[in-house]
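I keep forgetting this: the sequence line spells out the residues, with the fold written below as integer tokens. I include a record here:
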Amino acid sequence: MTDSTKELQEFRAEVSAWMKENKPADPGFLLPQTFMEVGSEEQLDFLLKWQRKVYDAGYLGMSWPVKYGGREMPVAYQRIADKEMLVHRVPIMFNVIGLGWAGPLILKMGSDEEKHRYLKGILTGEDIWCQGFSEPDHGSDLGNSQTTAVRDGDEYIINGTKIWTTFGNYAKYMILLARTNPDAERKYAGLSYFLSPMEVPGVKAVPIQKITGEYGFTETFFDNARIPADCLMGEEGQGWGIAMQTLQFERSAEGGQASEYFAERVTMDDLMKSAKTIMRDGEPLLNDPVVRDNLVTFMMEEKALKLSTVRAGIPALCSDYPLSLALSGKLRASELFRRMRQYAVAIQGAKGGLYVGDADAVEGGFWQRAYFNSFSATIGGGTSQIQANIIGEHVLGLPKS
């Protein structure tokens, strides 16, 4: 099926009407622009109820098998539902690690028992997931993870620290990369992958205040935390390969997500509206030829990004460098939106220094908040520098040195 079929057109109209009818009213407190901003119980409770409502309406996990809570429909239907959520600017689907990374991973590589145990709770929002990859002393060197998992009968004993753990203080489960064999000849061979419970003694998540002012991340400490041995995914020593597959989903290089509506999309349409309302010397800023030229440049980049996504699905158009678009999408998108949002703040002049809560802030500080949030996208899932290395090595064939 394609988007032009009668069935999909009718479905789009159905979803649009539902979103218009069911879009929640302003709750009276700041809602997150991205899943990395959920820093309060009231935000969490609001988003949990909203996700459950969308799921009960049938617009979440549409391509997942029925026996695991989905509707087993072509992925085109989920894309339409996501697009309509974006168009209507409804609250985001916040449980991203479950919906976007752990869920697709379990569907692809998990046992049938793991699929029955975990997947439906991800869709309903009853089970929140977090990610235990990064560590304080190793940055983007994921292969050098030092958190340990020692087998003791029917359990593993976990010791170590993970950082930048989104939802760490709310999560029921963590996708955890830990070292089961510190003596392995290759550091990657000593890593194993766990679907680890968080609600066990010895696990402590400490919130970290971000530049935006809220507490969307935690540092997570494991102190002789015992988890069941059946939390191991695959076999010991297979953790690196499973982690790389997880990153394929995290970087949107591979599909299968229950939804991809994890952040309020801030586009050039929004910036154009701002340029029409911000005044300079009695005229809208949009009348300035230099500003217009810069905006057109951003518009071209944004359009190219959208077309590249379409092109990536047509093998004949990617035959020269088959992996180039999939592996570069995260870098191109995150850096474009960072620069675009930075420009939106810059054109405000002196008011660009104001933030959310200041009565004189342009659009309530919307662009300042969006700009600060953009840095998390250039870091999470591998920093922009790491992404450039991946493109150099795996697309261009450049040596690591």
Notes: The first strand starts at residue 129 and ends at 132.
